[in-house]
Design goal:
5 helices, 149 residues, five-stranded antiparallel beta sheet, elongated, two-stranded antiparallel sheet, 44% helix, 7 strands, alpha+beta
């Protein structure tokens, strides 16, 4: 995506406009967000807000070659963001460390269409309800489909 910016003297320059896709990790809570720029974060740009083990998310982000900036995980594209979003949503419903490791490997092995589908389902449910408890049905469906139950 490109946008033309007007410079001084009537000159224009083509600049690339990429959305800012990130997770803000603070106090054990991960806020999944996207915006047109790091300065333009709006409440409506939140895709999920969930309590997580921050170290697990950081590990998964490093595995997916994402940039870590203090309390933020910044994603180069939507695909790794989708995978971490799925992990955070479903992980909330798993207690066993063994199953959590299996979940991580499942999320990494999903094809991009599967990751897009599950992340879109989670996002849509979050936007409608703004409730993690309402996402338990989506997480349960994921766990049943991928034999995590």
């Amino acid at each position: 995506m490109g946008e033309e910016v007007i410079l001084g003297g009537g000159q224009t320059q083509q600049v690339e406009c990429k959305p800012y896709i990130a997770i803000r990790c603070r106090g054990g809570t991960a806020t999944f967000l996207w915006a047109s720029s790091p300065r333009d974060r709006l409440e409506s740009s939140v895709d999920l807000k969930v309590k997580v083990d921050t170290e697990e998310l950081m590990w998964l982000a490093r595995t997916l070659n994402c940039r870590l900036d203090e309390d933020d995980i910044v994603f180069p594209s939507l695909d790794p963001y989708n995978r971490v979003l799925i992990y955070a949503c479903v992980r909330k419903t798993i207690r066993s460390p063994r199953k959590a490791r299996y979940l991580a490997s499942l999320v990494l092995d999903l094809n991009s269409w599967e990751a897009f589908y599950w992340a879109s389902t989670i996002r849509e449910d979050w936007w409608l309800n703004r409730s993690v408890k309402r996402l338990y049905k989506v997480a349960k469906a994921f766990k049943i489909l991928f034999n995590l139950e």
